[in-house]
C-alpha cells in the first residue's frame, strides 16, 4: 500500500473576473473569493479513489502559502485526505515563490513522510507555470508521469495514460513516482457539509521552509503585470460605399 | 433522526451549496427559503418524505451543475475549442 502526497494550492476562484492592481505589480486578491486550484482537486480526488480501492494507505495534503492556505487543506481533508501539512510562507515572500521552491519543499516532505507517490495538479490556474511536478521529480530523481488522464497501479509500477499533442501516450514507470493530473483524469467530488465538519477534527501540521531546510529567497522580480488586450469595438456603417472607404483607409484593399 | 431534523439538515446542506450558485448566494437563499416556506403547513409524513427526497435530488443536481460548469470553463480556457 502506498503513501500518497498531494499538493494543493489556494488560487483565486475560477469564476472570478481577475483585476490588475493599479501599480501593475500583481492582481487584486483582497476580498476576492479563493478556492482550491481545480487541477489540484482532480489530484486529490485521484488519491482519495486510490484509498477507496485500498491502493493507498494514507494521504497527506500539502499547501505552501500564507495562513489562508489552510482553507484549501481543509477542503482536501473534507474530500477524504487523512492529514494536512501547512508550510507557512508570509504573504510578502509568497509573491515571489516559484515552482522551484515548492518542488524542493515537496521533495523534503516526501522524504520525511516516506511517500511513495506524489500527485499534483498539472498547473495552477493563477500563474499557469506547469513546472512543479516536473521539478519535484527532478529533485527527488523519481520518474514522472505528467498530464495523466488514467492511472493504474500494479505491484511495483504504474501504468499511466498521458494526454499529449494529438493523442494519448501510455507509459509505465516504477514507484516511487510523481504524477501530474490532467483535466480528464476524473470528476472531483463536492466537499459536503457533514464531511467539512468531520474534517475539522483532522490534524494539520504547521511548518516553515526553514524547518525543512529550503531556501525560498526570490529568483525573480515582478516587473509588471498587464491586462490582456481588449477587443476593439465594431462599427455599423450605413452603406457599401462607406464600407469600401473604411477598408481603404485601413489599408485592407 | 426525526423528520423535522432531516428537513433542517436538508435546508442547511442546500444553503451551503448555494454559496457557489452562479446567480449569487442571495438569489439562491431567497428562493430556497420561499420553497421551504411554501410547504411549511404540510403535516402528512409520507408527503414530507417525498419532499425530502426531492431536496436530495436537487443537491445532486447542483453538485453536477457546479462540476460541469468548472469543467467547461477549464476546457474552454486550456484546450482547443474544436477538439471533442
TrEMBL record, chain A:
Keywords: Electron transport, Mitochondrion, Transport. The keyword Transport applies. It comes from the Eukaryota. SUPFAM superfamilies: Adenine nucleotide alpha hydrolases-like. Residues 24-216 form the Electron transfer flavoprotein alpha/beta-subunit N-terminal domain. Transmembrane segments: none annotated. It is found in: Mitochondrion matrix. PROSITE patterns: ETF_BETA. Heterodimeric electron transfer flavoprotein that accepts electrons from several mitochondrial dehydrogenases, including acyl-CoA dehydrogenases, glutaryl-CoA and sarcosine dehydrogenase. It transfers the electrons to the main mitochondrial respiratory chain via ETF-ubiquinone oxidoreductase. Required for normal mitochondrial fatty acid oxidation and normal amino acid metabolism. ETFB binds an AMP molecule that probably has a purely structural role. Belongs to the ETF beta-subunit/FixA family. Heterodimer of an alpha and a beta subunit. Heterodimer composed of ETFA and ETFB. Identified in a complex that contains ETFA, ETFB and ETFRF1. Interacts with ACADM. This is Electron transfer flavoprotein subunit beta.
UniProtKB/TrEMBL annotation, chain B:
Residues 6-56 form the Complex 1 LYR protein domain. InterPro entries: Complex1_LYR_dom, Complex1_LYR_ETFRF1_LYRM5, ETFRF1. Pfam families: Complex1_LYR. Belongs to the complex I LYR family. PANTHER family: ELECTRON TRANSFER FLAVOPROTEIN REGULATORY FACTOR 1, GROWTH HORMONE-INDUCIBLE SOLUBLE PROTEIN-RELATED. This is LYR motif-containing protein 5. It comes from Nicrophorus vespilloides (Boreal carrion beetle). The gene is LOC108561777.
Amino acid at each position: 500500500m502506498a503513501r500518497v502526497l498531494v499538493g494543493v494550492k489556494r488560487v483565486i476562484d475560477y469564476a472570478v473576473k481577475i483585476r490588475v492592481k493599479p501599480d501593475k505589480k500583481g492582481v487584486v486578491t483582497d476580498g476576492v473569493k479563493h478556492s482550491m486550484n481545480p487541477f489540484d482537486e482532480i489530484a486529490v480526488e485521484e488519491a482519495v479513489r486510490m484509498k477507496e480501492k485500498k491502493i493507498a494507505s494514507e494521504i497527506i495534503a500539502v499547501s505552501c502559502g500564507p495562513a489562508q492556505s489552510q482553507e484549501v487543506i481543509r477542503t482536501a481533508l473534507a474530500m477524504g485526505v487523512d492529514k494536512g501539512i501547512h508550510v507557512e510562507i508570509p504573504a510578502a515572500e509568497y509573491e515571489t515563490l516559484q515552482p522551484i521552491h515548492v518542488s524542493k519543499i515537496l521533495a523534503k516532505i516526501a522524504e520525511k513522510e516516506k511517500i511513495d507517490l506524489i500527485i499534483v495538479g498539472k498547473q495552477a490556474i493563477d500563474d499557469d507555470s506547469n513546472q512543479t511536478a516536473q521539478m519535484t521529480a527532478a529533485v527527488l530523481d523519481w520518474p514522472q508521469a505528467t498530464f495523466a488522464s488514467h492511472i493504474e497501479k500494479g505491484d511495483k509500477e504504474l501504468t499511466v495514460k498521458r494526454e499529449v499533442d494529438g493523442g494519448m501516450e501510455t507509459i509505465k514507470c516504477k514507484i516511487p513516482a510523481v504524477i501530474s493530473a490532467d483535466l480528464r483524469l476524473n470528476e472531483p467530488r463536492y466537499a459536503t457539509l457533514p464531511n467539512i465538519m468531520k474534517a475539522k477534527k483532522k490534524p494539520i501540521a504547521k511548518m516553515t521552509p526553514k524547518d525543512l531546510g529550503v531556501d525560498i529567497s526570490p529568483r525573480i522580480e515582478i516587473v509588471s503585470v498587464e491586462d490582456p488586450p481588449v477587443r476593439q469595438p465594431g462599427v455599423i456603417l450605413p452603406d457599401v460605399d462607406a464600407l469600401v472607404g473604411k477598408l481603404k483607409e485601413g489599408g485592407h484593399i | 433522526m426525526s423528520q423535522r431534523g432531516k428537513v433542517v439538515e436538508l435546508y442547511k446542506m442546500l444553503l451551503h451549496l448555494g454559496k457557489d450558485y452562479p446567480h449569487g448566494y442571495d438569489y439562491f437563499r431567497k428562493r430556497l427559503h420561499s420553497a421551504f416556506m411554501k410547504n411549511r403547513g404540510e403535516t402528512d409524513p409520507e408527503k414530507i418524505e417525498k419532499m425530502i427526497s426531492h431536496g436530495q435530488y436537487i443537491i445532486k443536481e447542483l453538485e453536477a451543475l457546479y462540476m460541469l460548469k468548472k469543467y467547461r470553463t477549464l476546457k474552454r480556457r486550456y484546450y482547443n475549442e474544436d477538439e471533442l
